[in-house]
Design goal:
Layout lengths: L7 E5 L8 E4 L5 E6 L2 E6 L8 E4 L4 E7 L3 E6 L3 E6 L4 E8 L4 E7 L4 E6 L3 E6 L7 E6 L4 E7 L4 E6 L4 E5 L6 E6 L7 H4 L4 H8 L13 H10 L5 H7 L5 E2 L5 E5 L5 E5 L8 E2 L10 E6 L5 E6 L3 E6 L4 E7 L4 E6 L5 E6 L3 E6 L10 H13 L9 H17 L3 H5 L13 H13 L71 E6 L3 E7 L4 E7 L8 E5 L5 E4 L3 E6 L16 E9 L5 E8 L5 E6 L4 E5 L3 E5 L5 E6 L3 E6 L3 E9 L2 E8 L4 E8 L13 E6 L5 E5 L3 E6 L8 E7 H7 L6 E9 L2 E8 L12 E4 L15 H7 L10 H20 L8 H26 L2 H8 L5 H13 L3 H19 L1
Helix pairs in contact: 11-12, 12-13, 12-14, 13-15, 14-15
Subcellular location: Nucleus
InterPro entries: WD40/YVTN_repeat-like_dom_sf, WD40_repeat_CS, WD40_repeat_dom_sf, WD40_rpt, WDHD1/CFT4_beta-prop_2nd, WDHD1/CFT4_hel
Pfam families: Ctf4_C, Mcl1_mid, WD40
Length: 923
């Protein structure tokens, strides 16, 4: 059972006793112990020093440590407060509730906080902004007693008073309920409701108990704990935890069930447990806390049976059991997987070494001893005995089935840790990135490093070579340039680009984004986790996979996703490595997981992949040396072409559009059919890359419109649409919207900008971002704004009649449409649509109807200007405009307008024009 050689160190931390919560943050050298409104901070590098002391809110219900030395405290008084652990002071009150707060956690890489309590509501709060805006409020349906957050998949597991466990997805600002585990947890209903709710909540967290009377005599604490009476069953259930714990890689969720077993679920399928740890080794009393080790290979649990148990994930068995001297209240892992820290209900903290036990299971004698003790104490708890044997058999079957899954085996193998590159160039790049600062200037996000020396980073690639079943060796790839911020483009060429991509921020980034959905990556220890999410959840189910290749370029459509490792991390400061060629890789996956492939791409020294594009029938890969490769959706290379350096590309069912680099002051584009026939070759692109910040790509958005026309959005936020591109030497870029002015027009507020997604008819689709250059996590829902041609302020003539002015303002609130703008917009839209219809490039059945409607709008816009000229008495200008009218009914309306204003000469001219046109039509 307990190994006598295990190191045990118990310290009296709080002389007043009380429930002691212990917390250690993965990137910190400090251990935090909390009780009775006090936090004591231990420096684990200097254990001889006295701990620092900081005051926090009284009635603490949860204490969470996050990035940047911040902490969250949920208190019984109904407040969620944030603290600066470095300055040791309170910085903000994030949320208040009339009832007690029970839990608060950091989310989205530490940029948000999620809190909840007895009111039964979840609040998502921005912790970075000065105002700490509440992004979302969600009703959980019952009182909340615990929150566990999966930072890899942005999933929140919410423990409810009725024993349910609800899992919400927070990939978007509006959360979605993913799954509900019914009555899986210990029910807390009686403890949270009624007139005695506050008192019951206090009993839940062990406050005011007998052990609070302990003094500073540690030996006396231990002796009194041995002699103290065993808590009643109701009291024990009240102290049981309902908080599950997510695995560090985000795949697994360990849940302490009401039967005192620990069930492990895979987030790919919550309908049944992936496995259960053996019931014969389950705690004989309610479980108080469960925590995964930093490397994810072990799970520790403590219970009211005064037992510390450590479970091995690969073997799915108990590997360590330790008797505790007193009742535990919480546990945490130290800086590695070799140490467990347990907080006691008496104000003590105990350290236990588990490093020697991590790789082995209990001996047969110890197993027999455990089973014998289970039989001896079998009457102490509910749900044990005969019923537990059935659970044990089921658990064995599930464990045996799940052990066949290579996913578990992949991340429990021991591999050498990665080491940080300490070359002069990389140091300089890191320093430059740190000096830039800002939201996306974190140099620590450029690579994964085993900073505690525990050796838990993994060197195995997730996934297998097609049909081989062999694991691929891992390489460290440093994502740089646009994606890491530490390597500028080779010879002035910007880094890799994907539509909608963002740099790393708080260990995560968006890889690509379009109206279908988005792919995002989270930095892990030795690999990244890529998640593919859809705006329309009914279309496809969100899925994720592990990335051991350093994938940093992506393109997705409704059917699949194409990703690539650009190879930009294989260069240091633009200099090629001595080994010569670099191998990048491309990866294709169908969203329904029915098909996929992976293949390597050989690159020349100094070359990297700049862009990829996925279309309905082909995939394209472009490089900084101008090589454009076309692959079938089965991974077969079908075409290879050499161009000037390619910066970006997009493809549709018929065409490929590439942006080429001539100089920082000159970008060009090519447009060709999928068989290689050029429609436009090396034409000028009115987007400039000079004068931009080092991390900024000259292109902000790149996509095909719903009618099949190429669209580009530069850093000036002007949406450009390519017109007349099907005719040689006739292509021209038409500005159809200034997104910044459009946001001001719809009163979006200050500090808001638009992240381009697409153009659908006369609507521009975008994601609104506030006080940031790039979209943040969670992602706001897509929005739309009407297209308005940027004719320039004051360029359009104003209506002189108040009535007309009022009519013009109906569609746009405070901003009236200029008749000239309306005319220009109609001409551009009609020209684009007519060209697409003439060349059979529109699949929309309503295209002809839309073109006819545009013709009517064209005449209406002209009539407005005719009315303006008539009001001014400018007959010549009025007649000039009349000659542009197309429909005879519009000519008749113009004649009536002139007649009403008693412009007889103009009426006569209009009537003669009508007669002439009728004669021509008759002939």
């Amino acid at each position: 059972m307990a190994n006598e050689a295990d190191e045990e160190n118990i310290v009296k931390v709080f002389v007043s006793g009380g429930n002691t919560q212990v917390v250690h943050f993965r990137d910190s050298d400090h251990l935090y112990a909390c009780s009775n409104g006090i936090v004591k901070i231990f420096d684990q590098n200097r254990p001889d020093l006295e701990p620092e002391v900081m005051d926090i809110a009284e009635g603490m219900r949860s204490f969470e440590v996050g990035p940047a030395g911040r902490a969250l405290v949920a208190s019984q008084s109904g407040e969620c407060k944030m603290y600066d652990l470095k300055a040791q002071k309170e910085t903000a009150t994030l949320q208040r509730s009339p009832l007690g707060m029970t839990s608060a956690v950091f989310t989205h890489g530490g940029t948000m906080a999620l809190c909840g309590g007895l009111e039964g509501k979840l609040w998502l709060v921005d912790v970075q902004g000065e105002e700490h805006q509440v992004k979302n409020t969600t009703s959980a349906g019952d009182q909340i007693f615990g929150i566990s957050y999966n930072n890899v998949g942005d999933l929140a597991a919410i423990s409810l008073a009725n024993g349910d466990l609800a899992v919400y997805s927070y990939t978007a600002v509006e959360p979605q309920l993913v799954y509900t585990f019914s009555t899986l947890l210990v029910a807390k209903k009686a403890l949270g409701g009624g007139q005695n709710g506050e008192k019951a909540a206090g009993e839940l967290f062990g406050e005011g108990g007998e052990e609070d009377a302990f003094d500073d005599d540690l030996e006396g604490d231990i002796l009194q704990a041995k002699n103290s009476k065993v808590p009643r069953e109701a009291e024990m259930e009240g102290l049981a935890t309902v908080r599950p714990d997510w695995h560090p890689d985000g795949d697994l969720l360990a849940i302490p069930t009401r039967t005192r077993e620990i069930a492990v679920f895979d987030r790919a399928d919550f309908s049944r447990p992936a496995f259960k740890f053996p019931a014969r080794n389950a705690h004989r009393g309610p479980v108080v806390d469960v925590r995964w080790s930093p490397d994810g290979k072990l799970l520790a649990s403590v219970g009211l049976d005064k037992r510390l148990k450590v479970w091995n994930l690969e073997k799915k068995r108990q590997v360590m059991a330790r008797e505790l001297p007193m009742l535990p209240s919480s546990l945490t892992w130290g800086r590695s997987s070799a140490e467990v820290v347990v907080g006691m209900m008496s104000g003590n903290v105990a350290w236990y070494s588990v490093g020697d036990n991590a790789g082995m299971v209990l001996s047969e004698a110890e197993e027999e001893e455990e089973e014998g003790e289970d039989e001896l104490h079998g009457e102490e708890g509910e749900g044990e005995g005969e019923g537990e044997e059935g659970d044990e058999e089921g658990g064995k079957d599930e464990a045996a089935e799940y052990s066949k899954d290579t996913k578990i085996a992949n991340f429990v193998k021991d591999t050498p840790p990665y080491t940080k590159n300490t070359t002069k160039e990389s140091k300089n790049a890191e320093e430059a990135s740190e000096n830039e600062g800002g939201l996306f200037g974190d140099s620590e996000d450029d690579f994964i490093v085993d900073d505690d020396g525990a050796g838990y980073t993994e060197g195995r690639r997730g996934g297998e070579e097609a049909g081989s079943g062999k694991m691929r060796p891992a390489k460290r790839r440093k994502l740089q340039g646009e994606h890491g911020g530490s390597l500028q483009a080779l010879a002035g060429i910007p880094g890799p680009y994907s539509p909608g991509c963002t740099p790393w921020a708080s260990g995560r980034r968006y890889m690509t984004m379009n109206p279908v959905g988005y792919a995002w990556s989270v930095s892990q220890d030795g690999y990244n986790t890529v998640t593919v999410t859809f705006f329309d959840r009914s279309m496809q189910k969100e899925y994720h996979f592990r990335d051991f290749d350093g994938l940093d370029v992506a393109s997705m459509d409704a059917d699949g996703i194409l990703l690539a490792s650009s190879g930009v991390g294989e260069h240091q400061g633009g200099q090629k490595r001595p080994r010569g060629k670099v191998e990048a890789c491309i990866l294709y996956k169908k969203h329904d997981q029915s098909r996929g492939w992976r293949r390597k791409v050989g690159l020349q020294p100094g070359e990297f992949i700049t862009a990829v594009s996925l279309g309905p029938s082909a995939a394209f890969v472009c490089t900084s040396r101008g090589y454009v490769r076309r692959y079938s959706l089965f991974g077969r290379l079908e075409r290879l072409e050499k161009l000037p350096p390619v910066l970006a590309c997009i493809s549709s069912s018929k065409y490929l559009f590439t942006v080429i680099y001539n100089s920082p002051y000159s970008l060009g584009f090519n447009l060709q059919s999928l068989d290689g026939r050029y429609l436009q070759r090396n034409e000028s692109l009115p987007v400039c890359g000079a004068g931009l910040a080092p991390q900024m790509h000259p292109i902000r958005g790149l996509f095909f419109s719903s009618d099949g026309d190429p669209c580009v959005v530069g850093q000036d936020n002007v949406v450009l649409v390519l017109s007349r591109w099907r005719d040689p030497l006739q292509a021209c870029w038409m500005p159809v919207l200034d997104a910044k002015a459009g946001l001001a027009r719809i009163s979006a507020g200050s500090g808001v900008s638009a992240w381009p997604l697409g153009l659908f008819g006369d609507k521009f689709c975008f994601v609104a971002i506030r006080s940031s250059r790039y979209p943040t996590f969670p992602l706001a829902l897509p929005s739309e704004m009407p297209v308005r041609v940027p004719v320039g302020e004051g360029d359009g003539e104003e209506d002189s009649e108040n009535e007309n002015s009022k009519d013009n303002s109906k569609d746009n609130g405070k901003n009236s449409n200029s008749p000239e703008e309306e005319l220009m917009r109609t001409i551009v839209q009609a020209e684009l649509l007519n060209d697409a219809i003439s060349n059979d490039d529109v699949e929309d059945e309503t295209a002809e109807e839309r073109l006819a409607a545009l013709s009517v709008r064209y005449d209406a816009a002209l009539l407005r200007q005719v009315g303006q000229s008539c009001n001014r008495g400018d007959i010549l200008d009025a007649f000039y405009l009349v000659t542009k009218l197309r429909d005879d009914r519009a000519l008749a309306a113009a004649a009536k307008m002139a007649e009403r204003l008693e412009l007889a000469g103009l009426v006569d001219k209009i009537n003669r024009l009508r007669e002439t046109r009728m004669q021509i039509e008759g002939e």
